[in-house]
Amino acid sequence: QIFNQHNAEAPNLEQVFHRMAQTEPNLDHDVSWFLLPSYWAKMVVALISFLCFANSYDGDFVFDDSEAIINNKDLRAETPLGDLWHHDFWGSKLSSNTSHKSYRPLTVLTFRINYLFAGGFYPVGFHVINIILHCTISVLMVDVFSILLGGLQFSNKGRRLNLAPKTSLLAALLFAVHPVHTECVAGIVGRADLLCALFFLLSFLGYCKAFRENKEGHNFSIFWVLVSVILGAVAMLCKEQGITILGLNAVFDALVINKLNVLELIQKLLHKDKSLENAGLLRKGLLFRITLLMSGGASILYIRWRIMGTGPPAFTEVDNPASFADSLFVRAINYNYYYSLNAWLLLCPWWLCFDWSMGCIPLIKSVSDWRIIALAALWFCLIGLICQALCSEDSHKRRILTLGLGFLIIPFLPASNLFFRVGFVIAERVIYLPSIGYCILFTYGFSLLSKQAKKKKILAVAVLGILLVNVTRCALRSSQWRSEEQLFRSALSVCPLNAKVHYNVGKNLADKGNQSAAIKYYREAVRLNPKYVHAMNNLGNILKERNELQEAEELLSLAVQIQPDFAAAWMNLGIVQNSLRRFEEAEQSYWTAIKHRKKYPDCYYNLGRLYADLNRHIDALNAWRNATVLKPEHSLAWNNMIILLDNTGNLAQAEAVGREALGLIPNDHSLMFSLANVLGKSQKYKESEALFLKAIKANPNAASYHGNLAVLYHRWGNLDLAKKHYEVSLKLDPMAPGTKENYNLLRRKLEQLQKKGG
User: Fold this and answer.
1) Range of the domain at 301
2) Kind of enzyme, top EC level (predicted)?
3) What is the pTM of this model?
């Protein structure tokens, strides 16, 4: 009984179904599923979608979140809001050669609001907004699917009727719990897809409102058509796919509002039939509305083009190897193979991965590759569905299949490589909108099976089982997105050939201090992709720290040979050459790094260290000054300037630099310590003491802080305090250089004073 529950609204629905039955078959008629009032259906969908992803609310910033959020200056209050409209999603200028041209200012604006309300980079608020957005979208899907599956009908009072309450609820549940959506919900950068989907659906629902007859009896409202276009523009400002809703609105208008028979129209065009208006082209203002949609879309794209410029984004072969293939045949075969894998992720979302590039999916280079079967299966299914959508005598079937295919294919077109190269092989996030089409087709298939099945409840239980499995999979996948370690390790079994997976696991281990394990994964990344310069650079860095300088130099030299403008590798190569005492080569490497990255404070800092080792003090000070100009909070550069000036006897200049540094970084205890040393030598004992005590309060376990304060007291004549801090210093570090000798001198002096006093 549970699959055909009746309620207070059921009789009204049944009357509506009876009236509609005269025009077209009702999809709900043979389906054994829950029948709930609209309000309760939406509550159920919201609750289940929340349960799927709730455990991601307290996850970390992971993977792309670092670049899009933590390192994105557009989120900071000091960045003018106007800059958001001239920067890409990652905070780079759109005019830059390195920009990915992903123009999503409204998404970045929501990140900025998150950051300001949270008072910093606290991921909980970011995650909560993503979960709320997905729940909201899933609730809207109940209305969207009721239109797509049941048609668009209004009551005499102008209220839209839900003519498919059972199947729209099922389709919305399928959408809400689909595991492929985890990346969009649990990964914070997925907000671009969520916001895009929200305004995408609002645009569609707004377009549907245009056909609610008003009191004047007009067939449609131009106002709501224009609102739909504006909402489509907003969707595109959240993510590029949003613009496709205008095409889908046109398809919906033709098929549902005008009940256009595409096959009949094609036949009339081929035979140059003069009665095209009878085919529905001119009825109810279809051409006028399509003109509005096309004009709006063209205007939006033109404005976007003017803002972004004409330069295409710069991607590398490892991002999308098929797009770099010389052979058109190889490109076409692999693009179609990627489509089949996307379709498989919708059908069986069990093998999910945060990144599918870098050799995860080897190229198909000949027709003898067995993976060609996947292409054949995809096109067999697509051609079958297209034939049914065009040629079926059942208008209801034609409408649903065409809408299902439209929502499956059209939002996917920007990611298809057909119009421009994209920077990925497969990205689960781009399937968020196309999954709407999948849910339509799945639900329609379920209704057809229910019509044929004798035991409908068994079929309903099977579908309920699929939903429960998907809920479980969503919860498991969400937990993997909570931390980078879990996320990266989960990909090892899915994409063992993906060099980037091994690189990210290695980087995560290195960040946690496990260098030995990190080396293993970095080596595997380089083995899988011998041109992976970032893996070479990181591996070279670790080997440098472990004093394995020869291999480190070989790796870094190879990295800059493969990518001559790789500034970080040039700098690290310079550090290794400096350690090998090949100073001229090191200096040349540093300057090459600066040539390729003009604003490179860390490189200037290391260049200054090289000059200091060579006793080129003026050059060292200039290099460190450049580092602090480019990065005023560069504590190491400030410290080195103070220490060098102190060591060369320029106490007044050292004091001035120290005060300038503390003015910029007032809570840096290492700067307090350096300036305190200078003040002590200048016999400004009181001020020096205050800074030493402040530094010790900030870092009480630094033996050198206590030791140098003891020296100050020793000079100042406060011998008891000097003795106390010498003892603390020796307790913290019994081998502290000079401290034991000074302590022994103090003890002898105290003994002499005691003898004189005795």
Assistant:
1) 28-308
2) transferase
3) 0.85
